[in-house]
Amino acid sequence: MEIMQQYENWSSRALEDPALNKELAEIQGKPEEIKDRFYCDLEFGTAGLRGVLGAGTNRMNIYTVRRATQGLADYLLTVKKAPSVAIAYDSRINSTLFAQESAAVLAANGVKAYIYRELMPTPALSYAVRELHCDAGINITASHNPSKYNGYKAYDETGCQITGEIASAVMSNILKTDIFDGVRHVPFQQGLDSGMIQYIDEELVQRYIGRVLEEQVNPGLCKDAGLKLVYTPLNGAGRRCVLTALERIGITDVTVVKEQEMPDGNFPTCPYPNPEILQAMQLGLDLVEKLGADLLLATDPDCDRVGTAVLQDGKPRLITGNEMGVLLMDYIARSRIANGTMPKNPVVVKSIVSTTMTEAVAKEYGIEVRAVLTGFKYIGEQIMRLEQAGEEDRFLLGFEESYGYLSGGYVRDKDAVDGSLLICEMAAWYKKQGKHLGQALDEMYAKYGRYLNKVDSYTFEGSDGMAKMSGILETLRAGHPTQIAGIPVSYTADYRTSRRVENGVETQIDLPSANVLEYGLGEAGSLIVRPSGTEPKLKLYYSLKAATLEEAQDLLAKVKAAAEELLGL
Predict the structure, then answer these.
(1) Rounded to whole angstroms, how far apart are CA atoms 209 and 207?
(2) Of 26, 498, 505, 563, which has the highest C-beta tally within 10 A?
(3) What is the C-alpha separation between 380 and 427, in angstroms, rounded?
């Protein structure tokens, strides 16, 4: 159907959500508003769906959620005899409704649905898929996006987010399904009564928390450390599981940021509920300063990322995802060596956009570093490969620069409950030595050199945003730069063609194809350019190294200015 036909089709119906009819009436006679809602269907990719809440095929609403679930059900019924799916959801607007609607569509199609009774962290969904032996998982969340967004993450039977092959098959089914008349659906209560929808027992929640507790590196360490903590779940799903885990390892002096404690999909204190963003952390930082706490911990709305800050010289200091990754790596490695629990040939897995300081720390401890594409499912795949080889114990840590960490194979996604536990244990370990995490980090910089990592995002909104981003990358591919900020480009890597060229010699990149370009800057570091997989954003990742912080900052300013000019930003 053409855009106006789509609009008229939706407008002519008495929709189950009256707010959608109201929105459609308000945009009558506004062609650009109508186009933005109907020019395309929300793309179902390896990250599932993600979009702005509202009316239309390019919005998150009960109809696009039902249609996506019908597509998933059709796929599962072609590959499994009696498939089942686990479902979780966070605090976002309509998350509970979308989760129940997903279960109702599955039930109507003869697919058993297991759904949590309350909002739960994303890793608890991965855990449920694995423990309940489900064939797929659905998590209703838009992670750390602004409140106007919601999303639909899909998982496979391993507990990883789905592959491109499965996503394509599901999307093909979605496109064949009429959004109103092609979806099978029963009332949620009817699904419960029939047994095709079943609530996940509290016992599984406790097993998940118990499994996280097994990830302690130095059990019992926190009980007498006197760690003073400020915690914020950023109005999301982390409160219950994080506080329970910390209490059970002996951390009881915890002050929760009151304004951000309870679930609220409007995120009233921060427009962007992301622990990477200073504004989201500000209330917590103020409280750390007021109380003189040792540590601020902040989990994002679906509790798969965790951010941290400490007091240094009386002022809060944010610790980045890259910095926390190398701190945890160093702490786990030195502790396991001291405890005699370090495996032979240990492995750390990181994304290609995460700090190259990882390799320097790995060399110190004899750790193999595996670099994978952005997306924690690729880290999950490495854990699975180790498990299949009977070598799961080799896995020490997986991390991404975007504040995602995992230290065990019990799930296949980043876990902020596990991350929170490890960060607090590490902070307690350093506190017993009279140090905080900022001082520990400075000691690592003194030893390995001053690494500086930064990510800049450039937003391209609207129907032509994706085309603009695509054009920028195609222009780069048409003529790769030979220097950036006067620094010769030492190598070029195009992950879409899996080609790496250095000194005229071409080698293959042993990773799946991805729309990513990387430029080596010799001893100075590297620049990576990639579009976001979940948002209309182009991201630039700077990974630089110098002798001092001041020199690294000067280098960053020069490389950033040159990169923006190169890309026309």
Answers:
(1) 5
(2) 563
(3) 26
* Residue 25 pLDDT > 90: yes
pLDDT tens digit sequence for 237-272: 999 999 999 999 999 999 999 999 999 999 999 989
The phi-psi region of residue 250 (left if phi > 0; otherwise alpha if psi is between -120 and 50; otherwise beta) is: left
pLDDT digits (tens, 9 = 90+) for 447-460: 999 999 999 999 98
Q: Are strands 315-319 and 306-312 parallel, antiparallel or unpaired?
A: antiparallel
The Cα 326–Cα 361 span in angstroms is: 7
**Could you read off the pLDDT of 103-138 as tens digits, one per residue?**
999 999 999 999 999 999 999 999 999 999 999 999
User: CB–CB of 343/393 below 8 Å?
Assistant: yes
Residue 351 annotated to the active site: no
Cβ atoms 334, 216 nearer than 8 A = no
pLDDT at position 534 is 62
Taking the C-alpha atoms of residue 382 and residue 394, their distance in angstroms, rounded to an integer, is: 11
Q: Single out the residue of 226, 69, 197 nearest to residue 139, CA to CA.
A: 69
3-class DSSP state of 70: helix
* Rounded-to-5 percentages of helix, strand, coil across the chain: 40, 20, 35
Q: How far apart are CA 201 and CA 210, in angstroms?
A: 15
Mean pLDDT of 276-289: 94
What strands, in cross-sheet order, belong to the sheet with 49-52?
49-52, 149-156, 136-140, 84-89, 112-115, 197-199
> CB-based contacts of 431: which residues, under 8 Å, 6+ apart?
225, 226, 227, 294
With CA atoms as reference, report the closest residue to 417 among 138, 216, 258.
Answer: 216
Contact 61, 42 (CB under 8 A): no
Q: Which of 95, 126, 143, 420 is catalytic?
A: 143
Biggest distance spanned by C-alpha atoms of the chain: 71
